[in-house]
């Protein structure tokens, strides 16, 4: 268990560094992709153990969000989004619970629950995450079309990298 | 009590969630220029809408004052027009400043009562001799002629409008300057008759009819246009139908025209001439 916590902390740091140092720098120039953000860090929330209580989940989400906001220079936006995603995670898990139920000692990963399940799980949460992120960022539904557009593009890119991460690192 | 506490503990994550979201949004609004602006303007949106409604209502009440001030301004501008000056010299451009006299002055008034369905219609306006109105002044509105002041009271006056069979106004055909008088036959309130144009005058349909400038009104106020003409057998004059440009039945704001130079010109006429 102790090992497990360290793994999660190391993964969190690693993912945040990836996000801040690499994905943040990606710019798509003036093309229609210019509002696209690759958001890898929802992965940290996605992969937290099933045992983690809702309170802890939300607090972790907030901390991750604030750390990212410091780097993104957008205090509160990532925090609001991550808190929301963390808040929703248990409900989504309930929604797509496999027939046998969960083994509460594991993390919801591709390794334990299979690739199709993980794609389903991740895509729901990442899609919501992207939508909330762009909504909060725009801060007004006046830009609804732009929000939906950016959400879809960012969702595609983010999911690609989140799934790639699953294959490359294959976390347990 | 314990149950309530347990319930609260069970759903503590919801409070935590709401608290952290609120905190995040607080931070967003505090730290991000763009979102703060949106927040401020959005929160003003509702109150702003309401203020807008209220101010619209207020403007409605202030409309009358606004109208008055605009009319005042219009009067000033109108009086400054060349056609409302009298020039000693024939070239107005040359001697505009020093050698012009004010020829026409205007007073703003409102129609407070009017009859429309009679043959002898009378309008009542809210200015009387206290405001410098006197019998025989012309009455115009922004896009046409209304009539002539009849009886004058202290604060109110009656106006004999065009749509009165007794009214007769000196007008001219714009293209050739032929003079005639505009009368009404008591039928269509938008149609007048132009009388006194001799048979030899050439004009066309849709020619403009303007005030002649020889009596009460400054020259050049557009009255209407010719819609039909005929010569009665045995007559030497045309009977011309004129479509009015304005609609006297809807008029509210009017200007009373004072011809300052009327008295000097009246003095030149023989004493027994007919005033009408």
Any overview of this molecule?
Chain A is mainly α. Chain A contains 7 helices and no strands. Chain A has one domain (2-168). Chain A has helices at 2-23, 42-46, 54-72, 77-95, 110-113, 115-138, 144-168. Chain B is 30% helix and 29% strand. Chain B has 2 domains: 19-64, no CATH class; 106-260, Thrombin, subunit H (Beta Barrel), CATH 2.40.10.340. Chain B contains 4 helices and 14 strands. In chain B, a hairpin with a 7-residue loop joins strand 9 and strand 10. Chain B has helices at 2-10, 12-31, 33-80, 262-268; strands at residues 85-87, 100-102, 104-114, 123-125, 138-141, 144-152, 157-161, 169-173, 179-183, 191-195, 208-211, 222-231, 238-244, 253-259. The chains are: A mainly alpha (172), B alpha+beta (276). The A-B interface holds A 53-55, 57-59, 61-62, 65, 69, 74-77, 79-80, 83-84, 87, 136-137, 139-140 and B 12-13, 16-17, 20-21, 23-32, 34-35, 38-39, 42.
Structure summarized in a few sentences:
Chain A has 172 residues and is mostly helical. Chain A has 7 helices and no strands.
- Strand proportion of chain B, as a percent range, falls in 25-35%
Radius of gyration of chain A: 16 Å
CATH superfamily of the largest domain in chain B: Rod shape-determining protein MreC, domain 1
Distance between the amino and carboxyl termini of chain B: 101 Å
Characterize the biggest β-sheet of chain A.
none
CATH topology of the largest domain in chain B: Thrombin, subunit H
**Number of separate domains of chain B:** 2
Helix content of chain B: 25-40%
Average of the residue pLDDT scores of chain A: 85
Structural class based on helices, strands and sheet pairing of chain A: mainly alpha
**Class inferred from helices and paired strands of chain B:** alpha+beta
Tally the helices of chain B. 4
**What is the gyration radius of chain B calculated from CA atoms?**
32 Å
Order of SSEs of chain A, N→C? HHHHHHH
Q: State the largest interface.
A: A-B, 23 and 21 residues
Number of domains of chain A: 1
Strand content of chain A: under 5%
């Amino acid at each position: 268990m102790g090992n497990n916590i360290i793994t999660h902390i190391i993964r969190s740091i690693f993912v945040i560094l990836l996000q801040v140092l690499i994905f943040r720098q990606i710019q798509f120039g003036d093309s229609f992709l210019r509002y696209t953000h690759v958001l890898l860090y929802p992965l940290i929330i996605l992969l937290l153990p099933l045992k983690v209580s809702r309170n802890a989940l939300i607090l972790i989400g907030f901390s991750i969000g604030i750390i990212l906001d410091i780097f993104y220079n957008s205090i509160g936006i990532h925090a609001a989004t991550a808190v929301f995603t963390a808040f929703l995670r248990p409900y989504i898990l309930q929604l797509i619970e496999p027939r046998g139920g969960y083994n509460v000692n594991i993390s919801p990963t591709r390794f334990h629950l299979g690739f199709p399940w993980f794609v389903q799980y991740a895509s729901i949460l990442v899609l919501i995450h992207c939508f909330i992120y762009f909504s909060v960022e725009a801060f007004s539904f006046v830009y609804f079309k732009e929000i939906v557009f950016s959400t879809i593009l960012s969702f595609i890119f983010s999911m690609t990298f989140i799934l790639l991460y699953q294959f490359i690192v294959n976390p347990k | 009590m314990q149950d309530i506490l347990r319930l609260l503990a069970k759903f503590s994550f919801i409070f935590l969630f709401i608290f952290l979201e609120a905190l995040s949004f607080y931070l967003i609004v505090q730290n991000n220029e763009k979102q703060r602006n949106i927040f401020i303007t959005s929160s003003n949106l509702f109150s702003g809408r309401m203020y807008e409604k209220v101010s619209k209502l207020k403007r409605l009440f202030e409309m009358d004052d606004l109208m008055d001030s605009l009319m005042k301004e219009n009067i000033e501008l109108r009086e400054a027009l060349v056609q409302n000056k009298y020039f000693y010299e024939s070239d107005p451009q040359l001697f505009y400043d020093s050698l012009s006299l004010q020829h026409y002055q205007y007073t703003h008034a409102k129609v407070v009562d009017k009859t429309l369905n009679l043959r002898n219609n009378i309008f009542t306006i809210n200015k009387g001799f206290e405001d410098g109105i006197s019998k025989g002044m012309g009455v115009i509105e922004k896009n046409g002629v209304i009539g002539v002041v009849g009886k004058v009271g202290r604060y109110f006056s009656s106006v004999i409008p065009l749509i009165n069979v007794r009214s007769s106004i000196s007008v001219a055909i714009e293209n050739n300057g032929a003079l005639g008088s505009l009368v009404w036959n008591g039928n269509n309130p938008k149609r007048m008759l132009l009388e006194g144009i001799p048979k030899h005058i050439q004009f066309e349909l849709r020619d403009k009819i303007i005030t002649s400038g020889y009596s009460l009104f400054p020259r050049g106020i557009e009255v209407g246009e010719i819609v039909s003409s005929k010569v009665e057998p045995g007559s030497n004059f045309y009977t011309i139908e004129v479509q009015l440009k304005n609609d006297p039945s809807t008029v509210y704001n009017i200007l009373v025209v004072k011809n300052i130079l009327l008295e000097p010109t009246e003095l030149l006429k023989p004493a027994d001439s007919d005033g009408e």
